[in-house]
Amino acid sequence: MELNKKWAVVKLQSMFTEVFGLGRTAILSASLMTIAVIAIGVFLFFYLAPPNTISMTTGPQGSSFEKYAEKYAKILKREGVTLKIVPSEGSMQNIKRLADPASKINIGFVQGGVKKDINTDKLVSLGSVSYMPLFVFYRSGSNIERLSQLAGRRVAVGEVGSGSHTLSLVLLAANGIEPGGPTQLLEMDSDAAAKAILSGKVDAVFLMGDSVSTDLIRQILHADGIRLFDFTQADAFTRRIAYLNKITLPKGSIDFGKGTPAQDVYLLAPTVELIAREDLHPALSDLLLEAATEIHSGPGLFRSKGEFPAPTEQEIRISNDANRFYKSGKSFFYRYLPFWLASLVSRIVVVLVPMVVLLLPGMRLIPAIYRWRFRSRIFKWYRAMLEIERDLLMELTPDKRKELLERLDNIETEVHKMKVPASFADQFYALRGHITFVHTRLMSEGHPH
């Protein structure tokens, strides 16, 4: 059995040698090159495949971030991608997780203005997906017009790590209210803060959708003795703080029957961005943005139809893949094929084309090098014969003739030892004919004419 295998290998090598003019070295070189290119191609085929599971950091249970994530999970599941939802305390914790390579979080919702001193060089934005309104509720018999009027009161500013905590401190500081002053700035989570203002334990609360449920917002709006702060200075705030937007809560939009709110209320809202690590697979970027379009493009209480998602960035750059999606939509294969099939076809194209580009010239180059090497061996003997013929032009003594004949005999002996493929037979026999020709000249008497 082993003998038959060896015979088959020898037979195959003999066929390539005789038919294609390839020696053992050329065959080995071509084989190694082919194996190397195929191995690299197979590696790239699997390496370039998009993962079928990704993780999203969201917000507390019942928050708008969590509800958004559940919608994303359903859409991605249709395409065979599992979205793992990881609850968090809010935007601050989300961006910290994304910036930490050890967290294994791929994407998350982050409101504008929470970056602070976090290194986000390895993060990219897929664009803004919604507004995140800030609700400031306070207990008072009459309306207050400026946040500075909260001085000296008990104010719940949100839990550390939440978007409401970050933004509330910025806004209060702009109104002269700082931690450590006469105003009690209480750090508590949204649920605790809501219960505290409902029971009268605090005088005001700052709440945002990333850390509080919409049902809780409605409950506070309907409570007696609690008012929603109207940011009448909203335009001034948006000029001073670039990541803020002025939005309107229309009269009666919460409850038409009760007319809640009783009038239009101006609110401040940063945008929520879908933030990802820069190594997010382009196919997943397209899939997430397609899901974002399905979820966020419709009209809502604080947005008009088609306003989101949008390629607006705050502190983190928009990814190249996202820019391409906003300009021209999904890439060609993902536009017309199911996700799994588009992934397969695109990888075949990406891997197959470079393989062909590398292999075809390589397969042509190896035989050319082999033929050049063989011809150089033949030319070596032609050069030796040319030297003998140059010596024939000189005065030939018997000793000199004998020396030249010995040199020519050595050439002939070495030529007969050469292993010559059939494809080079014409050059081999031409060389032998020229050796005979020179030998005849040496044997002739007198000087050649």
Structure explained in plain terms:
- This protein has 449 residues and is of the alpha/beta class.
- It folds into 2 domains: 18-42 and 348-443, no CATH class; 48-330, D-Maltodextrin-Binding Protein, domain 2, CATH 3.40.190.10.
- It has 14 helices and 11 strands.
- Strands 1, 2, 3, 4, 10 and 11 form a 6-stranded mixed β-sheet that branches.
- β6 (154-156), α5 (163-174) and β7 form a beta-alpha-beta unit.
- α12 runs parallel beside α14.
Structure described in brief:
This protein has 14 helices and eleven strands. The protein is of the alpha/beta class. Mean pLDDT is 82; it is low at 445-449.
Shape: rod-shaped
Low-pLDDT stretches are 445-449
CATH fold naming of the largest domain: D-Maltodextrin-Binding Protein, domain 2
Roughly what percent helix? 40-55%
Question: Would you report the number of β strands?
Answer: 11
Provide the CATH superfamily of the largest domain: Periplasmic binding protein-like II
Total tally of structural domains? 2
- Rg (CA only): 40 Å
How many alpha or pi helices? 14
The average pLDDT is 82
The string of secondary-structure elements, in order, is HHEHEHEEEEHEHEHEHEEHHHHHH
Helix/strand-derived category reads: alpha/beta
Strand content: 5-15%
CATH architecture of the largest domain: 3-Layer(aba) Sandwich
